[in-house]
Specification:
Layout lengths: L1 H14 L8 H11 L9 H7 L2 H11 L1 H23 L6 E6 L5 H14 L8 E7 L11 H9 L5 E5 H9 L12 H10 L2 E2 L14 E3 L4 H4 L8 E5 L7 H10 L3
Parallel strand pairs: 1-2, 1-3
Antiparallel strand pairs: 3-6, 4-5, 5-6
């Protein structure tokens, strides 16, 4: 009997329940998990307002920061677009591009001022004379070839000014319109008689049907503006909004 009792005692030690003691931190964690979430059924915004101060920022980052950033970015984009549209200046009525003339930028501005005054134009932004374009016979990566092509195609360049070789290059690239597409017959006849017409190579011609431009060396207005090069030619490019302004500029140049 003693041995039997001893055997039972060993089984009790082997299979009996063992009491486990939790630490205070573990008890707190269990209590937290067992308690109901007071924020579970309310909005995130209400939860944010009710959180202790030291928990607000982490909660905001987790739940609101991304959406807030997207909203702010979208609002900024809308404002930028509205401002661009609202404050964008008017498109020029005539836009003249000068090539390889960066040293004459001030003189080109003077020419613009004279034309604006001559035509009684209220807003000088309606006239653009930009002599800063660079054009070479290279591969197009070192000059403004791509930009020029895009602007001519869009009708943003109405007249071109260049020396003889560059003018011939512009004609070859299709950026110059034959003069008889713009000028009236009477004016062409007079210009031919005055010897101011040039052909596609920039050579003088008295054949109005071959005229691609005019010799600025024979322009009283051009020659009368100190600092402008005297070996330049002018031609008509892409005119999309009528030809009146182009003809007015040619008349303003006073070829003789």
């Amino acid at each position: 009997m003693a041995m039997e009792d001893g055997g039972n005692s060993g089984d009790d030690n082997r299979f009996g329940a063992k009491e486990y003691a939790f630490t205070d931190e573990q008890k707190d964690a269990i209590a937290t998990l067992a308690s109901s979430n007071v924020y579970a059924k309310q909005s995130k915004w209400k939860t944010f307002r009710e959180l202790p101060a030291d928990q607000k920022w982490p909660f905001f980052v987790q739940n609101f920061l991304l959406n807030t950033a997207i909203a702010v970015g979208a609002a900024a984009l809308v404002i930028a677009i509205v401002c661009t549209v609202a404050f964008k200046g008017p498109d020029p009525d005539i836009s003249i591009a000068g090539f390889n003339m960066a040293d004459s930028a001030d003189q080109c501005d003077q020419l613009k001022t004279k034309f604006v005054k001559n035509q009684n134009i209220d807003d000088e932004r309606l006239v653009s004379i930009n002599c800063s374009y660079l054009l070479t016979d290279g591969n197009g990566y070192t000059d403004d070839s791509a930009k020029i092509m895009a602007m001519v195609t869009a009708g943003q360049i109405n007249m071109v000014v260049a020396d003889k070789d560059t003018f011939a290059m512009l004609v070859e690239r299709g950026y110059v319109t034959p003069l008889n597409k713009v000028e009236r017959s009477a004016e062409l006849t007079q210009q031919a008689a005055d010897g101011v017409l040039v052909d596609k190579k920039g050579e003088a011609t008295d054949d109005a049907s071959k005229a691609q431009g005019l010799d600025l060396a024979k322009s009283a207005t051009w020659s009368g503006t100190d600092g402008l090069p005297d070996d330049m030619l002018i031609g008509v490019s892409n005119v999309t909004a009528g030809t009146d302004h182009v003809r007015a500029f040619i008349k303003f140049l006073k070829f003789e």
